[in-house]
Amino acid sequence: MALEEEKKTVFDAEAATSLTKDLRGTFASGKTRSYEWRASQLKNLIKMVNDNEKDIIDALHSDLAKPELEAFISEISMLKSSCIYSLKQLKRWMTPEKVKTSMTTFPSSAEIVSEPLGVVLIISAWNYPFLLSLDPVVGAIAAGNALVLKPSEVAPASSSLLAKLLAKYMDCSAIKVVEGAVVETSALLEQKWDKIFYTGNGKVGRIVMAAAAKHLTPVVLELGGKSPVIVDSDVNLQVASRRIIAGKWGSNNGQACISPDYILTTKDYALQLIDALKHELENFYGKDPLESKDLSRIVNSNHFSRLAKLLDDDKVSKKIVHGGQKDEANLRIAPTIFLDVPEDSLIMNEEIFGPLLPIITVDKVEDCFELINSRTKPLAAYLFTNNKKLKEKFVRNISAGGLLINDTTLHLVVATLPFGGVGESGMGAYHGKFSFDAFSHKKAVMYRSFAGDASARYPPYTPGKLRLLRALMSGSIIGIICALFGWSKV
Q1: Would you state the pLDDT for residue 470?
Q2: Among 184, 245, 275, 295, which residue has the least CB neighbours within 10 Å?
Q3: What is the model's pLDDT at position 464?
């Protein structure tokens, strides 16, 4: 009997087809297009989070041992801010944008109408399982779409809670949650969607993009990469080290896509920087960081093994200048700093996504730019300096999803900035209006009356008509007058 029940609940291609069919029916009804529906669903999201804050914090602790303060700030507070901002701006975003027309189409008017794409798929990540699941959902709802959310199975407590809460608080005819792993995700990717939004790593990103290509489905890929931090020698070292620590170990213990991945500084300054980092790390997490309740644990044994392999690599194991302790039973790794690891080491050839931080030294701080640009483009790049010319050179020469000067990760919270990658760190962007735009089609609309019907556009074509059309296309008022009167332009 139990086996029969299990067979009934398997989510396969047939179930995915049925699901998308139902959602297309809902979208075709027009209900998701109205301002009232969009606003009500965003308000329901806020209520859902307010009513279930403790359950959300508990789920995040179960999956990642995420400290309550981190859970509140980076998942609950940021999500609510996203909903509130979208509600405030929604009517303005939905209003058609008037644009100028040209002399060629006179008399006419035109506008850009934002219309929902239709039925979209959102595949989210495990490291911030509520924020990275629901922030794209905010954009999809604001734009008027029906959607499927596929949370990450790597954070099972959060995935289960998301499925339960969205079923209770949201319009289930338009917003669905599918739990599961590779089988379920593959079944979803076989379907035709109007957009796919994926947050995760490049390996799976390529699978998502290949599946989308079969249906010519547009994608947003929020990936990652090795985000560098340049530290100049003219900075407030205490503040700089605290902000690096907050962005690295204070952001899910390094398990964040925009977490600092490696530091670049000069040979003369490296030891001062290391001493400052050591001092502040002890202030924050104590003499035995493995016992600290303010550090998230590694998400599971697979990721622990991956990080242990980086840590124990013969090329870097003797380069540790701080930390290195690990506790496999409790999935904990201490904040670890390396100095001058080789370029061909494992740790410098993949995104770390954990509490390990290499420091690379250069002769001059300007040498950092060439090293960064020799690698694939990162999701974020950071610079600590008081040198105005160095700031300008950094902005001009470094290509990354986002840049931040004299801090780390905080550009994430600014709703008026696009958040997304470039090159191998991703494509497309979201947050604020960029989320609305990511899930909208910008439809061009032009209006004309029956007046002003120019015979010059119709056969038979004559030299006079050609002169007039040339003048119209060039926008020359004098040329148009000359052409109308048959004069040669002087």
Answers
A1: 83
A2: 275
A3: 85
Please, is 371 exposed, middle or buried when counting C-beta atoms within 10 Å of its C-beta (0-12, 13-18, 19+)? middle
- Class (C level, CATH) for 228-420: alpha beta
Angle at 206 between CA 203 and CA 344, to 5 degrees: 40
What pTM, to 2 d.p., does this model score?
A: 0.94
Per-residue confidence (pLDDT) for residue 2, from 0 to 100: 46
**83, 184, 257, 424: which one is catalytic?**
257
Per-residue confidence (pLDDT) for residue 489, from 0 to 100: 62
In this structure, the strands spanning 440-448 and 108-116 are antiparallel
Cα separation, 176 vs 181, whole angstroms: 16
CATH fold match for the domains 2-223+432-442 and 228-420: no
Task: Show me where the domains of the chain are located.
Answer: 2-223+432-442, 228-420, 465-490
Q: Given 222, 280, 351, 424, which residue is catalytic?
A: 222
Give the residues of the chain that fall short of pLDDT 50: 1-7
pLDDT of residue 5: 45
3-state secondary structure at position 58: helix
Does the annotation mark 482 as catalytic? no
Q: pLDDT for 159-202, tens place per residue?
A: 999 999 999 999 999 999 999 999 999 999 999 999 999 999 99
pLDDT, the chain, mean: 95
CB 447 within 8 Å of CB 400: no
In DSSP notation, 131-180 reads HHHHHHHHHHHHTT-EEEEE--TTSHHHHHHHHHHHHHHS-TTTEEE---
Q: What is the per-residue pLDDT for 6? A: 47
Q: What is the pLDDT of residue 1?
A: 43
Query: Is residue 222 annotated as a catalytic residue, yes or no?
Result: yes
CA distance 345 to 310: 8
Distant-in-sequence, close-in-space partners of 105: CB < 8 Å, separation ≥ 6 = 446, 448
246, exposed or middle or buried, with CB in 10 Å at 0-12, 13-18, 19+?
middle
Neighbours of 238 (CB within 10 A): 11
Q: For the chain, give me the number of helices (H) and strands (E)?
A: 18, 18
Give the amino acid at 216.
L
| Residue 389 CB contacts under 8 Å (≥ 6 apart), including other chains | none
CATH topology assigned to domain 2-223+432-442: Aldehyde Dehydrogenase; Chain A, domain 1 (3.40.605)
Q: What is the dihedral of CA 141, 145, 146, 149, to 10 degrees?
A: -60
Pairing mode of beta strands 426-427, 97-99: unpaired
Contacts for 215 with CB less than 8 Å, ≥ 6 apart: 192, 193
